[in-house]
Amino acid sequence: MIKKIRLMLEYNTYCIWLYDENDEVIDNDNPPEWNDDEKLTNAFMAVSDLYDTFYIDNEKEFRYVGCPDEKTREKLKTLIAEAVDVLKTKNNGKYQIQNDINYDF
To answer: Where are the beta strands (DSSP E) in 1-105?
Structure first.
Protein backbone atom coordinates (compact mmCIF):
# COMPACT_ATOMS: atom_id res chain seq x y z
CA MET A 1 0.00 0.00 0.00
CA ILE A 2 1.20 3.50 -0.81
CA LYS A 3 1.98 5.52 2.27
CA LYS A 4 3.46 8.77 0.98
CA ILE A 5 3.12 11.18 -1.90
CA ARG A 6 6.22 13.30 -2.41
CA LEU A 7 6.14 16.43 -4.56
CA MET A 8 9.32 17.36 -6.43
CA LEU A 9 10.25 19.36 -9.49
CA GLU A 10 12.53 17.58 -11.93
CA TYR A 11 12.99 18.24 -15.61
CA ASN A 12 10.63 16.37 -17.92
CA THR A 13 9.03 14.50 -15.01
CA TYR A 14 5.60 14.54 -13.41
CA CYS A 15 5.72 16.22 -9.97
CA ILE A 16 4.07 13.41 -7.96
CA TRP A 17 6.20 10.56 -6.64
CA LEU A 18 4.58 7.62 -4.85
CA TYR A 19 6.33 5.79 -2.01
CA ASP A 20 5.45 2.54 -0.29
CA GLU A 21 5.44 1.84 3.44
CA ASN A 22 9.22 1.14 3.26
CA ASP A 23 9.79 4.64 1.85
CA GLU A 24 10.81 3.26 -1.55
CA VAL A 25 9.68 4.83 -4.82
CA ILE A 26 7.03 2.76 -6.55
CA ASP A 27 5.88 5.16 -9.26
CA ASN A 28 6.02 8.67 -10.67
CA ASP A 29 2.31 9.28 -11.27
CA ASN A 30 -1.02 9.86 -9.57
CA PRO A 31 -2.05 7.18 -7.08
CA PRO A 32 -3.85 4.38 -8.96
CA GLU A 33 -7.29 5.35 -7.67
CA TRP A 34 -6.82 8.87 -9.10
CA ASN A 35 -5.21 7.87 -12.41
CA ASP A 36 -8.12 9.21 -14.43
CA ASP A 37 -8.53 12.43 -12.44
CA GLU A 38 -8.14 15.11 -15.11
CA LYS A 39 -8.23 18.04 -12.69
CA LEU A 40 -5.33 16.63 -10.64
CA THR A 41 -3.34 15.60 -13.70
CA ASN A 42 -3.87 18.92 -15.49
CA ALA A 43 -2.89 20.90 -12.39
CA PHE A 44 0.44 19.11 -11.99
CA MET A 45 1.12 18.96 -15.75
CA ALA A 46 0.79 22.77 -15.85
CA VAL A 47 3.48 22.97 -13.15
CA SER A 48 5.76 20.51 -14.97
CA ASP A 49 5.27 22.15 -18.35
CA LEU A 50 6.19 25.60 -17.08
CA TYR A 51 9.16 24.31 -15.06
CA ASP A 52 10.51 22.46 -18.11
CA THR A 53 10.83 25.80 -19.93
CA PHE A 54 13.64 26.66 -17.51
CA TYR A 55 15.90 24.22 -19.40
CA ILE A 56 17.60 24.16 -22.77
CA ASP A 57 17.31 20.67 -24.23
CA ASN A 58 18.31 20.17 -27.82
CA GLU A 59 20.73 18.07 -29.88
CA LYS A 60 23.65 20.30 -28.92
CA GLU A 61 23.11 21.00 -25.23
CA PHE A 62 21.15 20.27 -22.11
CA ARG A 63 21.29 22.70 -19.22
CA TYR A 64 19.28 24.54 -16.63
CA VAL A 65 18.93 28.22 -17.49
CA GLY A 66 16.57 29.15 -14.70
CA CYS A 67 13.45 31.19 -14.43
CA PRO A 68 13.43 34.06 -16.95
CA ASP A 69 11.66 36.69 -14.82
CA GLU A 70 9.67 37.48 -11.70
CA LYS A 71 6.32 37.19 -13.52
CA THR A 72 7.11 33.60 -14.52
CA ARG A 73 8.36 32.81 -11.01
CA GLU A 74 5.09 34.04 -9.50
CA LYS A 75 3.08 32.14 -12.12
CA LEU A 76 4.88 28.91 -11.23
CA LYS A 77 4.35 29.48 -7.51
CA THR A 78 0.64 30.04 -8.16
CA LEU A 79 0.38 26.89 -10.28
CA ILE A 80 2.13 24.88 -7.55
CA ALA A 81 -0.20 26.23 -4.86
CA GLU A 82 -3.26 25.43 -6.97
CA ALA A 83 -2.03 21.91 -7.73
CA VAL A 84 -1.23 21.23 -4.07
CA ASP A 85 -4.71 22.45 -3.11
CA VAL A 86 -6.29 20.04 -5.60
CA LEU A 87 -4.17 17.20 -4.22
CA LYS A 88 -4.97 17.98 -0.58
CA THR A 89 -8.68 18.19 -1.33
CA LYS A 90 -8.57 14.89 -3.20
CA ASN A 91 -6.35 13.25 -0.57
CA ASN A 92 -8.57 13.98 2.43
CA GLY A 93 -5.92 12.52 4.77
CA LYS A 94 -5.42 9.25 2.89
CA TYR A 95 -1.70 9.71 2.18
CA GLN A 96 1.09 11.62 3.83
CA ILE A 97 1.95 14.48 1.47
CA GLN A 98 5.57 15.63 1.56
CA ASN A 99 6.19 18.82 -0.40
CA ASP A 100 9.86 18.84 -1.41
CA ILE A 101 9.51 21.45 -4.13
CA ASN A 102 12.46 23.81 -4.08
CA TYR A 103 11.18 27.33 -4.72
CA ASP A 104 14.63 28.67 -5.69
CA PHE A 105 13.95 28.66 -9.41
So the answer is: 2-7, 16-20, 25-27, 55-57, 62-64, 96-99
